[in-house]
Amino acid sequence: MEAVRLIVASRRALAESGDAPEVMAEAWQAHSLAQAIGSRLAVSGPPELRGEALGLTELAGRGCGVLGSPALGLDALRAAQLTELGDARESLLCLGGLLGEVGIALVGVACAAADEGTYWQCMEAIDAADESRDRVLEMLRRLAVRDEKRVVERDSAAG
């Protein structure tokens, strides 16, 4: 399935999640999807993005690690359904939105946490989502610079 469709499904599932365990499971799904997208971009994405994409993969993996993996079957794991990235810019824009929503949802869980362990787990996952989002924004910036260079080169060649 294409990245944007999976991101949209994750955003919907996050918005519909109710209690803290559901929110945390959806946050894990989002981090896992960001990790998969980062891996794909690092291997087959535009060369300008490969370093940042590797960083995204590591940061998103950290987010998965602090949340712990929920008990999901392979068919329920959205990241495993990723078959293509589609347009890198659109995928990154959507992923940035998802990561922002994950952070907001986890703030709500952290504020209502009854135990200190859940609170700190959420805080670390928020930090990973925020840093992952920063990587996504940097990749979008690099794509914009690349496109601007292409326009300048095309205009220079046209003369």
Shape: elongated
Got a strand count?
Answer: 0
Q: What is the helical fraction, as a range of percent?
A: over 70%
What is the CA–CA distance across the termini?
43 Å
Average pLDDT: 93
Provide structural commentary.
The chain is an all-alpha fold. Helix content is 79%, strand content 0%. It has 5 helices and no strands. Helix 1 runs antiparallel to helix 2 and helix 3 packs antiparallel against helix 5. 38% of the residues are buried.
Q: What's the SSE blueprint?
A:
Layout: H1 3-16, H2 20-44, H3 50-67, H4 88-112, H5 116-158
Helix pairs in contact: 1-2, 1-4, 2-3, 2-4, 2-5, 3-5, 4-5
List keywords for this structure.
single chain; 159 residues; mainly alpha; 5 helices; elongated
In short:
The chain is mostly helical. It has helices at residues 3-16, 20-44, 50-67, 88-112, 116-158.
